[in-house]
Amino acid sequence: MSWQAIARKDVRDAVRSRGLWVLFALLAVLSVGYAVGHSYLGERTFPAFLGGLTGLFAVALPVLAILVGYKSVIHERTGGSLFLTMSFPHSRWDYLLGKAVGRSVVLLAPTLVALAAAGVVGAFRYGTEGAALYPWFMLATALYGLAFVGVAVGLSMSTTIDRRITLGAFGAYVAFVTFWDGVHSLTMLLLHRFDGSVLSNLPDWALLFRLLGPGESYRRLVRAGFDVDLATLYVGDGTPVYVDWWMGVLLLVAWFAVPLVLGYRRFDAADL
Q1: What is the DSSP letter of 227?
Q2: What is the model's pLDDT at position 56?
């Protein structure tokens, strides 16, 4: 049961951080603010509102997840509190589980509250057509946030060099949120000797490669529940079965778990 104690302590410590409260208050304001302001930005329907909210969270949520997790371990290692924690009957695996669960709770609790508030306002303003599946959108958003928690905590476990963790976290956001479409397109052009026609007629395997981006998997899950103008490459006749919604779930779970395992391997072999 020792990982639960670490998770509880981690949540308590995070709750005391004023910076995190400010960030999550900003997220709530953005969510509800978008629900109110969508009528000036797009079609006044619930699916259209949901498509816009997806775009907002696709950009904002990874930032919060990374900020929640990327210093979660290194601060304790460099500050000496980790040595005290490990003097109790906790294994390093317990510590990994406790940190992962604790930081996940810290991210998801306020995020889901903000989503619930935005959903209520959105249903009131834009109708309830499709609103019955709103919990699916909340689940997809939670998985998306957890993917970046895994990346951030895994990075924090992997080294004691603060600069490397910061650059790694920033690089992960840029690569997988900001420029993933460009990375995918450039890779396809390189593989096909800069034949631009490949971008308008992607081979089946390239669709899976594109879906590897956490944001793409997130949009694929949202499209599975709602008729929105997202993830259109992965739906339609002839689309391979391995880019269906379940693959989006598997990939987001992998983005959460694999960085944690890789970070833990370095953490387990290191001196505290």
Answers
A1: -
A2: 94
